[in-house]
Design goal:
Rossmann fold, 43% helix, alpha/beta, binds 4'-phosphopantetheine
Length: 159
């Protein structure tokens, strides 16, 4: 069985992430969406809240499972016998960091990274932009699924 992991902080999941997950699910037998910590970012949602939103928004994809991991991505891959990481590339600005990660993960455990070109309709999208827009009352309804939209509204109202 060919499995791939789509890793990320998913704080929260956006239509851009979902596009990559859906396309990966069409190419692999199983796709694991893994919520990991990005130590350069502070989070709005707990890991459990993020998992719940991802589970809800990927439930129509029969071969997608959701998991979380505290530690290195490469250790998650090794522990779960996963040989491929799938990541979306939005623009050339993503490339330096992603290339470095891909090289580190290959050198550490021969885990391959496959990059998918983000759909142009989502190339400007990021969780950080969504949070910033939502924080100041901007309309993010075309950027995130309704369940995420509601969660953002509730969380930001409580800030
Ligand atoms: O959605 P993000 O924030 O761009 O995802 C980045 C993430 C979480 C995939 C990345 O930070 C990560 O892999 N974190 C786990 C720790 C790790 O393996 N770091 C890379 C080697 S230093």
């Amino acid at each position: 069985m060919k499995s791939a992991v789509c890793p990320g902080s998913f704080d929260p999941i956006t239509y851009g992430h979902l596009d990559i997950v859906a396309r990966a699910s069409a190419r692999f037998d199983q796709v694991i969406v893994a919520v990991l910590e990005n130590r350069t970012k502070s989070s709005l949602f707990t890991v459990d809240e993020r998992i719940e939103m991802i589970r809800d928004t990927t439930k129509s994809l029969g071969n997608v499972v959701v998991d979380s991991w505290y530690g290195l991505l490469v250790d998650y891959c090794t522990a779960n016998n996963i040989g491929t990481i799938v990541k979306g590339l939005r623009a050339v600005t993503d490339f330096d960091y992603e290339l470095q990660m891909a090289q580190i993960n290959y050198q550490a455990a021969k885990v391959e990274t496959m990059f998918m070109a983000t759909s142009p309709t989502h190339s400007f999208l990021s969780s950080s932009i969504v949070k910033e827009l939502a924080h100041f009352g901007g309309d993010v309804s075309t950027m995130v699924p309704p369940i995420v939209h509601d969660a953002l509204r509730i969380r930001l109202a409580g800030e």
